[in-house]
Amino acid sequence: MDRCQAKQVHAIDFSPAYVEHAKRHNHDPRIVFQVGDACALDFPDHSFDRVLSLLVLHFVPGADRAIAEMRRVARPGAVVGATVWDARGGFVANRIFFDTAAALDPDASERRARNYTRPMTRPGELKKAWLAAGFRDVVDEALIIRMEFASFDDYWTPYVGKDGPGAEYMATLGDVGRARLRDAVRLAYLDGEPDGPRSYAGIAWAVKGISPS
Predict the structure, then answer these.
(1) 143, 204 Cβ separation under 8 angstroms
(2) At what angle do helices 92-104 and 175-190 cross, to 10 degrees?
(3) Which residues lie across from 140 on neighbouring strands?
(4) Under 8 Å between Cβ of 76 and 103
(5) Residue 208, beta-bridge partner list
(6) Is 149 exposed, middle or buried (0-12, 13-18, 19+ CB in 10 A)?
């Protein structure tokens, strides 16, 4: 969407903490942040010219309901799009963590399997879902970015937080287990070189279609 043409943007997230953080750092009065459920959007039918879901559908139980809601709130002719991580084949930084953890702990192997087989993350799944929802002129592609880290500590910080599959797994470990995993992941990050910046490819599947009349 062209920023200069946007009169208002409504952004929702299921997590109140994320919404409050976004509000504190928002400097554009056109953007409205609120807590919401992707499967039950609190907007009237045909409300928006653009409807986007960014890196979230693979975490939504019953993603088909969320897609149906996106279609419901889109005006006829609106662009409706989404992205999800190519979790299995294109998320290098995340695989470093889980592949290392799985080598140390069978429980981590089970979590890795769940994380990399989420719905909508396989090639073509988004397009298939968009076609099933009745969108027209559906186009899908892969988007590639670089994920930049200043150091191992920069890379490791999200895993000692509270959100995401990696942090959830870390919370199940004791002090010894966390230290053991940190040391092993650090070796994978360093790859025999001094600590410092690293750049990893990150691939997301993307799809867009036109809302029918």
Answers:
(1) yes
(2) 130
(3) 207
(4) no
(5) 81, 139
(6) middle
Question: Residue 46, Cα to own-chain centre: how many angstroms?
Answer: 25
Q: How far is CA 40 from CA 12, 43, 66, 76, in A?
A: 11, 9, 7, 20
**Cα 59–143–140 angle (5° rounding)?**
80
Tokens at 74, concatenated: 């889109």
The domains of the chain, with CATH numbers, are 37-210 (3.40.50.150)
Number of Cα atoms under 13 Å in the Cβ half of residue 165: 20
What φ, ψ does residue 71 adopt, rounded to 5°? -65, -40
Environment class of 100 (CB within 10 Å of its CB; exposed 0-12, middle 13-18, buried 19+): buried
pTM of the model: 0.88
* pLDDT tens by residue, the chain, 213 residues: 444 477 899 999 999 999 999 999 999 999 999 999 999 999 999 999 999 999 999 999 889 999 999 999 999 999 999 999 999 999 999 999 999 999 999 999 999 999 999 999 999 999 999 999 999 999 999 999 999 999 999 999 999 988 889 999 999 999 999 999 999 999 999 999 999 999 999 999 999 999 998
3-state secondary structure of 37: strand
Contact in structure between 182 and 171 (CB atoms under 8 Å): no
